[in-house]
């Protein structure tokens, strides 16, 4: 699956640049966007429900008055205050189950990625909510996704629980953990995160950046109040990851000597096979011959509640491309395990 992960990252970057251009051309057509957002065209039932929840809480006026830091108040919030829990009733709702099952009877992971992104956005929005009704909500932009890991096969006959909660907050950025659990084993009162290991099927971490809607400048996010030792440990872990991200932005990471030597060996093997294919291994294939490409023209139906291209839509398209690439290369239907890193640029 590692072969498809790299393709996923490339597809995400390409699709994002295309989508932003299309979305910007519709930015002034607020009437059209409102119609699309109200109908939630082409969205999964869970994503549509999450966006409906976000719209019902939205206090944004039609004016574009600049919101200064002085007019906003920040208040420490606990992880539980912004936690959101959704349920997939697969055992009792055959129509819902059919929407999430592929031709092999397995879960459609691409649709789950849309739901993960939608729920993470709701959690981030809820945490950064300002109780001052006279102020506008902040714009929460998805910066990256760290390791989407599927630890166990996701059943399509049992009910599932989709839950998200804030684990770390900096000045203007915050991390949201999003998980999928088996409903019958899920304990909502269990401590985070160790006690929920038994029921957890998938885990991921989304990083958001808070910005003022009118100016696009960074905005202060509500601090995170830590109430348990488990939350403090998670906070410290994500703080270390945030510091690593900052250091990598300033200084690109240098490959270790072992990695450099391994890459050099692969390049030498590939060069030999390209120059003298008859001497190459009969089951070997050059990496450039495994690539697939897909161009996507984003439409107004593909925007999120903020008028930008929906990140879940991009991840869904990229995952489907990675799945097809793996399928063609391996000659057998692949099983999803994890995504290494997704960066929106």
Automatic annotation (TrEMBL):
GO biological process, one term: acyl-CoA metabolic process
CDD domains documented for this protein: BFIT_BACH
Stored InterPro entries: HOTDOG_ACOT (IPR033120), HotDog_dom_sf (IPR029069), Thioestr_dom (IPR006683)
Domain HotDog ACOT-type: 80-214, 288-345
Record-linked Pfam families: 4HBT (PF03061)
Molecular function GO terms recorded: fatty acyl-CoA hydrolase activity
Record key words, sorted: Hydrolase, Repeat, Transit peptide
SUPFAM superfamilies, alphabetized: Thioesterase/thiol ester dehydrase-isomerase (SSF54637)
PROSITE patterns: HOTDOG_ACOT
Protein family membership: Belongs to the acyl coenzyme A hydrolase family.
The protein's name in its UniProt record: HotDog ACOT-type domain-containing protein
Species for this entry: Spumella elongata
């Amino acid at each position: 699956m590692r072969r498809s992960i790299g393709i996923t990252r490339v597809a995400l970057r390409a699709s994002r640049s295309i989508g932003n251009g299309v979305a910007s051309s519709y930015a002034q057509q607020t009437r059209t966007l409102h119609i699309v957002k109200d109908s939630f065209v082409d969205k999964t039932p869970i994503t549509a429900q999450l966006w409906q929840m976000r719209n019902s809480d939205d206090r944004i006026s039609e004016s574009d008055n600049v919101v200064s830091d002085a007019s906003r108040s920040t208040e420490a919030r606990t992880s539980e205050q912004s936690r959101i829990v959704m349920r997939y009733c697969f055992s009792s709702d055959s129509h819902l189950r059919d929407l999430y099952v592929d031709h092999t009877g397995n879960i459609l992971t691409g649709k789950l990625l849309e739901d993960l992104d939608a729920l993470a956005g709701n959690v981030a929005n809820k945490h950064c909510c300002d109780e001052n009704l006279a102020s506008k909500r902040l714009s929460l932009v998805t910066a990256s996704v760290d390791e989407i890991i599927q630890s166990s096969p996701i059943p399509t006959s049992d009910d599932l629980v989709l839950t998200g909660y804030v684990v770390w907050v900096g000045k203007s950025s915050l991390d949201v953990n999003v998980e999928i659990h088996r409903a019958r084993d899920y304990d909502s009162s269990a401590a985070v995160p160790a006690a929920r290991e038994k029921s957890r099927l998938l885990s991921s971490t989304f990083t958001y950046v808070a910005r003022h809607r009118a100016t696009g400048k960074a905005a202060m996010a509500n601090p995170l109040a830590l109430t348990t030792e488990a939350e403090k440990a998670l906070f410290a872990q994500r703080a270390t990851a945030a510091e690593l991200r900052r250091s990598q932005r300033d200084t690109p990471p240098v490959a270790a000597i072992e990695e450099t030597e391994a890459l050099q060996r692969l390049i030498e093997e590939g060069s030999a096979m390209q120059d003298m294919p008859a001497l190459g291994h009969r089951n070997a294939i050059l990496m450039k011959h495994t690539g697939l490409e897909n161009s996507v023209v984003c439409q107004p139906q593909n925007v999120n509640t903020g008028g930008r291209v929906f990140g879940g839509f991009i991840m869904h398209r990229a995952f489907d491309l990675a799945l097809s690439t793996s399928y063609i290369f391996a000659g057998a239907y692949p099983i999803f395990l994890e995504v290494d890193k997704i960066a929106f640029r």
